[in-house]
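Quarterly update from the structural biology core.
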Amino acid sequence: MTGVPTADHNEAPQRRRPAVFFDRDGTLIVDPGYVYRVEDLVFVPGAVAAIKRLNDLGYYVFIATNQSGIARGYFTETDVQALHAELQRRLRGAGAHVDDIRYCPDHPDGTVERYRRNSDWRKPQPGMLLDLMRCWPVDRDASLAVGDRDTDVAAGEAAGLRSLLFPGGNLDEFLALHIEARRGAKRIR
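Predicted structure, tokenized:
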């Protein structure tokens, strides 16, 4: 199974809301390479504030992350799930949360047979983003994908989303400019 949904939500009809689809490593958390241990979880500057801002504005907040370290045998899906649980715990401590998470453990060059394959969930393919939009009432036209690699941008664009390449620095400051610009444009119409 590839990237099981991590949030329980009511499947009853809900109003469509904008969403931000974040890459994880290098966008939300510091990426020294293959982060999987809870003790190595460090948020990039402004990440917690950016998520809280989006929560307060009524956006869904999602994570879609390639995790080829699973296919390469560096760590397990259980390790990734534990890291995501800790990420959520720390966010909740700051009054923030991520609504749902998808990850892709697959890689065509993996050493673990069960994950050695091509997947439409592996970015730059849009599978994880499309699955999130299938499961949640997302207003696609008002949503964004944000990542630190060209593959993140390509996945967002393939899913029909406006996509931003995060150059590093303070994520909240970077995102605030784009969110406020979008909100201002809606008010002008």
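Residues 25 and 31 are 5 Å apart (CA to CA).
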